[in-house]
Amino acid sequence: MTQILLAMWILSALAIVFESRMYRIIIYFGIFSLLTSVAYFLLGSPDVAMAEAGIAAFSTVFFVICIEKYYSARENAAHERRDKGTLIKRFLRIAPALVLCVGLFGLVLYFSPESAAAQYLKVQFLARFMTDVGGENAVTAIYLGYRVYDTLFEALILVIAVVAVSHMSYSAQTQVADGTHSEIETSRVAALSLRIICPIIIAFGAYLILNGHVSAGGGFQGGLALATFFICRYMVHDIYDISVRKVLKWEEIIFIGIIVVTVIAVFLGAAMYVPAAILPFYQNAYLIVMNLLIGLKVACGFFILFYRYITIEKS
Asked: Whole-prediction pTM value?
């Protein structure tokens, strides 16, 4: 089953590469993300599957809004008139990368983690994570304990990406007074529905963050839910009263907080100095604080990307 799913994964990726019409690319991207989420779930990682689904939902809405604002019907018609010669040249340009990607996916299919040797770390993590890191969610224990280096570099990459977008985009502004509002504002039913949904999204994001150490969820998933709130706010209100510079500064401060907590709790081994009677409380507190910091950082990063392209660049 997993091999068939990964093969479909390759086909959906190829469809994205070769399609030139933006709306179809969005559809294929949604299919690719769905297959990715299912693959993660079947491989035993529901938290990662949830994060992928959340990123896909956020990105799809983001792409749809951008395309509606930046692409006209005339430009779409021009894409429809691509001749075969252009398509062949495009294929030749991406052929080396295509061969490499197909080869890598082939290796994944060939070395599918089903042998006893490939299961060694999985068995060790599941047997020891509650004692070594704490909590009841193995995925949270892995990315905040055993593989915290990966988490720090992922957080750093997001900071770099957001800073690059803020400093290299077309407009030098960090805040605008007003701009083009969403058409949903004219629909009372849609606006009322989103106003009802917004508090639920915030509550759900807080639940994912605060309970990520004992159930499926965590900082990344909760941060995506909080970031989705800003999309809803854009659709029913304007979001032109928020400064990107301030949010970016908060994201940098939160990232520093993540590094400080990680150095104290993981690299310096603060758990060794904690009495055994309160060690489970300390471990759960560490996981909750880290999930909270990561959730706020992810929410700030995705909000800055959304705000920059939807409001400032358009204005």
From this structure: 0.70
